[in-house]
Amino acid sequence: MPVVSADDGADAGRSLELGGAVRFNYGWLDYGPTSGLQTELVRVDAKGHAGPAFFSLQYRWYDGFDAVHHAYAGWRLEDGRDGGPVSDIRAGVQQVPFGLLPTASHSFWFGSGYYLGIEDDYDLGVVWQRQHGAHQWHAGVFSGDEYGTGANFDRYSFDVATTEDLPYRERERAIVRYERSGTRGGWDTAYGASAFTGRIENRIDGRKHDHTGAALHGQWTRGPLTLQAQWARYRYDNPESRIAMSAFMFPFEIAAQADVPTFNVAWDMQRTGWFDSITCYNNASATLPVGHDPGLRDSIQNVTGCSFGKGVMLTYVDWIAGKNMWFAGGPGIGVRDPANDGWHSRLNVNIGFYF
Fold first, then answer.
1. Phi, psi (degrees; rounded to nearest 5) at 350
2. Can you give the residue ranges of every domain in the chain?
3. Residue 1: predicted pLDDT
4. Highest CATH level, class, for 2-354
5. Residue 339: what pLDDT?
6. What is the pLDDT of residue 8?
């Protein structure tokens, strides 16, 4: 929804766009009561630019809480003219550039990495990015999570939570990411690697502990078929074998160190009957704790579904199956609960209108 735009004169190169979305959700659960169709999200968006300066923000209202999604301003350093590089620098609450971008998943429910804070995570920091031909670079520094406190559980992306048993919060973090794209054997390919190093802070005694992570990822596209693969590892060096995370109003515990493999398949069908697009997919991911602590156990999540696009409407129909998996009836991620460590599943339908 552009509200201000000019291409010449004193206002050349200026624009302002306002938008938003409303989403409705229905969920059938085999481990709890059916949620019924209800309003899941209302959001507002704004973005614009004036010459090399630009900004973007999004705020969201959910059932029971509201939260910032992102809010940053930036400066374009290189504009790609004459086939040259495109680069910019951004400051504010923005996506942490790690692994497959924009997400290591296709479904409404993302993959395991989202709930672990390594997929679609938004924190407060400064990021430089540059694209030149087949090469893409990201480098960033972050001061902590988007609110600067682990005690606020009302947030969109998952961050370290301050709880009575595990009183930690995120502190500074530095990250780099590289990806190379090309064509090989009829496939459009992209290969990349990411790594970060940072710290978490104990809110009781003030001690800080290392927080590190790395990922290798690849994507292969040929016609309507897309394959994605990623192997990530994260590590919190706190004395306990667990750390707490939170988002959507609730904290929960995860393994403090784990490998996170992901493998996704998607098939994209354009202009199929009444719909403008249909994409069907299977997103498989797992959290494999590192070490031999008897209080930890592997977690698995698999999402099979399709998204249907028509004009401003985008609908997801997903079957989510999880074993020992948070948000699918499990006690946490990578942690053991002998009374609740089996498979659970849910059918989820999300209908969104994006303006």
1. -125, 120
2. 2-354
3. 56
4. mainly beta
5. 79
6. 38
Please state, in angstroms and rounded to a whole number, the distance separating the CA atoms of residues 157 and 141. 18
pLDDT at site 166: 98
Distances (CA, A) of 288 to 69, 149, 178, 247: 29, 28, 25, 21
Return the pLDDT at 116: 98
Report the candidate in 245, 252, 244, 249 with the shortest Cα–Cα distance to residue 62: 249
Q: Using CA atoms, how far apart are residues 291 and 119, in angstroms rounded to an integer?
A: 23
Residues 226, 299: Cα–Cα separation, whole Å: 25
Question: What integer pLDDT is reported at residue 255 of this predicted model?
Answer: 98
Q: Residue 213 corresponds to which tokens in the numbers above?
A: 């992570």
Distance CA 118, CA 36 (A): 30
Q: Alpha carbon 124 to chain centroid distance?
A: 15
| pTM listed for this prediction | 0.93
Distance from C-alpha of 114 to C-alpha of 36, rounded to nearest angstrom:
25
- CA gap 203, 165 in Å, rounded: 11
Residues of the chain with pLDDT under 70: 1-12
Least Cα distance to 154 among 295, 19, 20, 248 occurs for 248
Predicted pLDDT of residue 12: 54
pLDDT of residue 291: 83
Q: What is the 3-state secondary structure (H, E, C) of the chain?
A: CEEEEECCHHHCCEEEEEEEEEEEEEEEECCCCCCCCEEEEEEEEEEEEECCEEEEEEEEEECCEEEEEEEEEEEEEEECHHHCCEEEEEEEEEECCCCCCCCCCCCCCCCHHHHCCCCCCEEEEEEEEEEECCEEEEEEEEEEECCCCCCCCCCCCCEECECCCCEEEEEEEEEEEEEEEEEECCEEEEEEEEEEEEEEEECCCCCEEEEEEEEEEEEEEECCEEEEEEEEEEEECCCCCEEEEEECCEEEEEECEEEEEEEEEEEEEEEECCEEEEEEEEEEEEEEECCCCCCECCEEEEEEEEEEEECCEEEEEEEEEEECECCCCCCCECECCCCCCCEEEEEEEEEEEEC
